[in-house]
Amino acid sequence: MPLSERIGSQLKRAEQALSGAKNAALRPSGLTAPQYAALFFLGESPGMSAAALARACAVTPPTMNTVLRNLQERGLIERTPHEWHRNILETRLTAEGEAALADADARAVRVERSLAAAFTEEERATLAELLGRCVDVLEAVRTDGA
């Protein structure tokens, strides 16, 4: 099968291009893409555990622990024991973390808006539907073990 017909390769190229653009946009904020993602999800759901954050950010638990340690050392997050489950640490943004997130998110949103501007509203809807179908097929293949 020629490379031009391999949808997986095209998806990977698009993902790498998006990741590269976001990393470049985030660089002035002093955050990596995984750090930004962690702050973003914590902004949406304060108190998430490291395990939940790892799942949300699509990274391994050891990677998330490194991300969280770095964010905590920079004073962007605080981690406290859960009220009932003392072996679970809840993670929340500090005021400095909220400011860092606001700066980084504005930068990431510019990348997303630039990408969205390349398509009409109808094309964006179609692309989202097609990508959703890709996810459904690939998750079914993974589940089936094919």
UniProtKB/TrEMBL annotation:
Keywords attached to this entry: DNA-binding, Transcription, Transcription regulation
SMART domains reported for this sequence: HTH_MARR
SUPFAM superfamilies assigned: Winged helix' DNA-binding domain (SSF46785)
Domain of life: Bacteria
Name the record gives this protein: MarR family transcriptional regulator
InterPro entries in alphabetical order: HTH_MarR-typ, WH-like_DNA-bd_sf, WH_DNA-bd_sf
Molecular function (Gene Ontology), one example: DNA-binding transcription factor activity
Domain HTH marR-type: from-to ranges: 4-136
Protein's UniProt keywords contain ATP-binding: no
Keyword DNA-binding among record annotations: yes
A UniProt-annotated Pfam family: MarR_2
